[in-house]
DNA sequence: GCGATCAGCT
DNA sequence: CACAGCTGATCGC
């Protein structure tokens, strides 16, 4: 134990020195004594930065996995008797409690032996594609501690994989984001308001001599594309997470404007991802719901959702059926914070008032849904559930939604629907061919050199034409 | 005891 | 690989 502690300390020091090396290579001090990221650390072939793509971790610690307890009770699907005593002390936040009733007993079929690495902390280094060269800015880089040379931290949108590391003890610098994202950072993460700097969409700001504009990203509420114009005339666009749309082609900062570097959300940068438009998916979801309710009027409709995003799936059902939306208090609070007109009238605080319920997407499993249905005072005889996720796709289904077949068990039916808030391959192509940027830096799927090369070859093909 | 963070999992 | 998290475990305070 003590040995491990020492190793961790040693590793931390090692990593910090590595980090300094990186910064020494890629940053300089300007007249104010503030560090900026140089723009000349970027090569044209896109192959010379493999090291920078991988966030640094301690390999020696990874090898030293230490077994903790194997939970045989879970392995057997039996309740751990010791949990009875614990339950009084342990703060439980499981779904059953969220719904307001007892956990019927965890019976995960297979629970792997748990291992622990927390004792061997990994220290990551901010990868180059999160830094904006020639500026003291980073985008979605909160998990690296204070980033050397960074005096302003941008948050593109409020999803956990982008704000990870941002907590109420944050003190490494100002956080720039849209108004809506700023509210979420404050109310959900309790970050000190003194660090939160909300920016109006579509308004140009001068931040440390750089012209910055946030543009709607057509992703989740509050998500932004970030446009930077440097004093030397260079323009960079960071898409954060986005779904490219025709509307973006009318943004004054994008139409007929030169973009020198495009930091691109390449989540679905593969021709196999050809999913339908959001509108088509919404139409499909509403159609399925109507048909189902015609056949089985006593049906409860459930939509799975993450913290924010994909709200229109249940808004569409709500509107089409003329029913309110039930969501738990924390989700209602978040939805209210969007400041959307008329949202309050469509939310219900009582689950008995409406057949349309929103649940965490992780709870869309038959066992949990059966329990949820059983808890509804026999109001309903069936359940229809939707799981909206971009990964719910199949090459054969492609854009033909009628090929989607639900999975059913007993009186519960679950539809996976390809409602995506990221660009499809085609949308990416159109966006890049519209923007014709000088250079493209992918920000997703970059952990693997083969993928990186594949993506760069797509970019080249698109821009050849 | 609480919050932060991480590996593993989906 | 990643979506956008969740869970359990551990550690620092």
TrEMBL record:
MF terms per GO, please? 5'-3' DNA exonuclease activity; damaged DNA binding
**A GO BP entry:** interstrand cross-link repair
Highest taxon listed in the record's lineage: Eukaryota
* Record domain DNA repair metallo-beta-lactamase: where: 343-448
- Keywords per UniProt: DNA damage, DNA repair, Nucleus
Name the SUPFAM superfamilies for this protein: Metallo-hydrolase/oxidoreductase
An annotated GO cellular component: nucleus
List the subcellular locations. Answer: Nucleus
Classification via InterPro entries: DRMBL, RibonucZ/Hydroxyglut_hydro
**Record-linked CDD domains:** SNM1A-1C-like_MBL-fold (cd16273)
Q: Which Pfam families match?
A: DRMBL
- Family per similarity comment: Belongs to the DNA repair metallo-beta-lactamase (DRMBL) family.
The protein's name is: Dna cross-link repair protein snm1
The protein's organism comes out as Nicotiana attenuata
